[in-house]
Amino acid sequence: MVKFAHLSDCHLGSWRQGELQDLNFKSFQVAVRNCVEEKVDFVLISGDLFDSAYPPIEILKESFAEFKKLHDAKIPVYLIAGSHDFSASGKTFLDVLEKAGFCKNVEDWEMQEDGRRKLKPTFHGDIAIYGYPGRKSGMEVEDLSSVYFESMHQFTIFMIHTTIKDVVGTIPMESVEKEKLPLANYYAMGHIHQIFDVQESNCRFVYPGPIFPNNFQELSDLQCGSFHMVEVNGPDIKTRSIKIPLKEVVTVNIVIDNGLTATQEIISELDKLNLRDKIVLLKLRGTLVQGKTGDIRFNEIEEFVLKKGVSVFLRNISALKLQELEFEMESFPTDNPQNIEKRIMDEYSKKNPADFNKYLSQLMMALSLEKNEDEKSIVYEDRLLSELKNILELEGIL
Predict the structure, then answer these.
(1) CA distance 86 to 82
(2) I want to staple 286 with a disulfide (CB 3.0 to 4.6 A). Which of 200, 255, 359, 388 is the partner?
(3) From CA 218, how far away is CA 226, in angstroms rounded?
(4) Residue-wise burial string across 69-87, b where 16 or more C-beta atoms lie within 10 A, e elsewhere
(5) pLDDT in tens, 120-169
(6) What residues contact 136, with CB distance under 8 A and at least 6 apart?
(7) Numbered ranges of CATH 3.60.21.10 in the chain
């Protein structure tokens, strides 16, 4: 029996928030520790080990330390580049890892006269491991239609970083029909950030999911990272998906319709929850009939949740919309622009009452000032700015 671990889409160094970048790396550390403890025969990483071809030096130092643990445990690592750590120049830090003796990049192929790509295997005992890298913008999809293996083996693994049609459904994106891939026993796939594990005849197709979610929506959907543990006994393949739940993720969905009162409404809802040491995802949705998104005091909300002991706080307002104002203008087909502007401003002021509305008419007039002939841009800008300051009673402030 042979046991190996299948990791993908580690994206080390991807998150800008320090706390999430740390969690991302800790997930990778957990996977490495698990591989050592379970004494796997080898590890596969099917693309996007790093989030870029040239990751930050601190990420590299920490990554080398983890690979050394596998090296010291005599566990070889076989990998390919993904769409993120791929470089058109062919030079990436995966080469540095390989030259240090910590891994083996199994991408190896020759272009044939007929335009096909003959892939060469890397052997682990009797197991043949082939690999083809991911590329930017799904450009590997066309390449994969021309790859082939020269010979058959007792057990074959094909490592690819691409999208197969089975996982995209009706989404219009470049993808590969898995039936058109060269025949292999185990397809170690990466690129799609979800768990997909399908057995068809003697072939196993597996996306193990990312080591850690890579954005707001993935945190909400996946909750945590994962990888696969695989046992091969003759023709039999057994797989286990191993989750890495480092922190509990809480998604808070709140519907709001008033930007002026939203801050207290949000704080009130968050106050009902136990948020200590959790990743909190605030998702706002709805249509604002009063106020605007700028009226929501997110700094105040963030200060509140930090006092409640959250580990990480993220917000998403993509589903929050402003009400579209509808004006009945068909009864004034020949009205002049000034009267139309006045009716629009009057209607807006009724639906969005504020002291600032008294300036609207004057501001519209000021902003219609035209640049005089031969007037220098800086003079025109100063004239316009002076007019705006007078209207807004800001003299001496700006």
Answers:
(1) 6
(2) 255
(3) 12
(4) ebbeeebbbbbbbbbbbbb
(5) 999 999 999 999 999 887 889 888 989 999 888 999 999 999 999 999 87
(6) 83, 86, 88
(7) 2-244
